[in-house]
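Summary for the steering committee. The consortium agreed at its last meeting that each partner would contribute one worked example illustrating the joint modelling workflow. Our contribution is presented below. We chose a case with several input lines so that the handling of multiple components could be demonstrated. No manual editing was applied between input and output; the record is shown as generated.
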Amino acid sequence: MDSAPVSARGDVAEEPSLISLQDVRKTYPNGTTALRDVSLEIPRQDFVFLVGPSGAGKSTLVRLLIREERTSSGRIFVDGRDLSRLRRRHLPYLRRKIGMVFQDFKLLPNLPVFQNVAFALRVTEGALRHLRPKVEEVLSIVGLEGKESKFPDELSGGEQQRVAIARALVHDPLIFLADEPTGNLDPATSWEIIQLLLQINARGTTVLMATHNREIVDVMRRRVVAIDGGQIVRDEDAGGYHAAPALEPR
Amino acid sequence: MLRRLWNRVDFAASSAWQNFWRNAAVSVASVLIVWVVLLALGSLLLVLHSLDQIVALEKSRASAISVYLADNTPLSSIMDFKLHLEHDPRVTAVTYVTKDQAMQRFREMPALDPQVIDSLGTNPLPASLDVTVRDIRDLGAIDQEVRSSPLVDKSPATNYEPSVIDKIVLLARVAGIAGLALIVALTGLSVFIIMLTIRTAIYLRRKEIEVMKLVGATDWFVRWPFIVEGLIVGVAGAVVAVLIVGFGYRPAVQNLQSVLIFVPLSYDPSYLRLVLAAMMAFGLLLGTVGSYLGVRRFLKQ
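What follows is the complete predicted structure of the assembly.
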C-alpha cells in the first residue's frame, strides 16, 4: 500500500485545487442548514475520505459538487469552473468529468453488464467510435472480463459495484465521487472495492469517498475530512476515522 | 457526426418504442383519443365544405324561380304570360320548360333510380317558366304577382323558398361552432392524455433518467425519446383517422346523395387531400405538444 499521503494541502500554491469550496453554505427551502461556512481545497490526484454521522452534510456536499443542488452562499470551483455560474446547459459536461458511484449502485436491471457501461457513452455520445474497446478496457480495470453478458441480478453486490465503477470510469473522469460505496458490502468485498479506488487514484484520478466504514479509514491512513453539524470539524492528512466517539457512536 | 446522429435517432426511437409498449394501455388510450379528435376534425371540415358547396349553389340558383304552370294550359296563353313577364323591368330572362324537359332534368339528378321514375307511368311534373331576375330581392314580389295568375299551378305555385339559404347558412354556422367547440374540448383532452402517457413513461424510466443525468447526458438527449413517443402516438392516431376518412368519404357522400336527392352534395377529392393533410399535421402537433408538456416539468432539474 502506498504509504505517502497523497494529500498536499500545504504545497498547492502554484497549481489551483481541482475542487475548491469557499465559505459554502447550503440551506434547504424547509429552513434546514445542511452546510455552513465550509471551505475545502482538494488538489489533483488527492484521495480523501469524507466522514461524519448520518445527516452531517456529506451527501449535501456530494450533491453540491455535481450541482444537483446549488449553494445558498459561497462558491465552489471544480476544475477551475465556478459552479454557481455554470449554465444549465453546460452541466452535463461537468458531470462527464466526475465519475460517481453510490451505495445502491444505480445499475439498470434490464441491461447486461456491457450495456450498463456502454449506456454512459451512448447517452453522452462520447467515444461512440471506440465504444466496444472502451467498455472492454474499463471492465478489465474493474476485473469483470467475461461477465459482459450477465445481468445485474446475476452478480454479487461487489460485482455490481464494480460495474458501477466501470461505468463511472468510461469518461476518464478527473474526479471520482463515491458516496458510501461499501455501505452494502461485506468487509472482504469492501476491501476489494477500496483497492480498486486506490488503483483509480494511482492512475491520476482524484478520489473523494464519503463513508461510514471506520475500519477502512483507520487502516488506509489517507486524508480525512470530518463533517459534523454541517461544518468541517477535522481535516487531517493520514488521519483515522476517529477523533470519533462523538462523530459516530457505534 | 453521422455516427452521433444515428446514435441519437436510434436511441430516441428505440426508447420511445419500448416506452410505448411498456405502458401499452395508456399509450393505446392516447392513440384512441387522438384518433377521435382527428376523426371529428376531418368529418367537421368535410361537412362544412359540403354545406359551403350547397350554399354556393343555392345562391346561384336564388336569382331564379320556377313558376309552375297548370297542366292543359294552352301554349298561346303561356307565351303571352312569358311575354308579359319579359316586359317586366326587374326580369332579365324567362325560359319555358315543358313537362318533358322537366322530366328530362329530373332524370339527370344524381343517384336517382330511373326505374322508380318509369314506374310512375304518367309524367307528374308540371311545365314551368323559369324567371331570372336582376336583383334577388325582387323575387318575393314577383312570386306574389305570378301566384294570382290563373295559368299557374296551385300546388305548389313556384319553387320560391326565401328562407332556404338562410337556413343552410345558419346550419353551417351552428355546425361550425358546435364542431369547433367539440374539437377544442377533445384537443385539450387529448393533449392532457398524451401528457399523462408521457409522464407514466417518465415514471417508468425514472431510474434510467437518473443515470443519464448522472453520467452527463444533455437535457435534450433525455427528452427526445419522450417527444418521439408523443409523435408515435400522434401519428398512430392520425393514420387510423386518415384511413377512415380517406376511404369513408366517397361512400358516405354516395349514401347521402341517395337519401338527400335534392341536396347538391358532391365528392371533392382535392379538398379531401387537403383535409387528410391537415389531420396528419394536427395529429403530429397534438403528439408534440402533449409530450413536450409532459416532459417539461419532470425533466427540469
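Chain B has two domains: 8-58+164-298, 63-161. The two ends of chain B are 28 Å apart (CA to CA).
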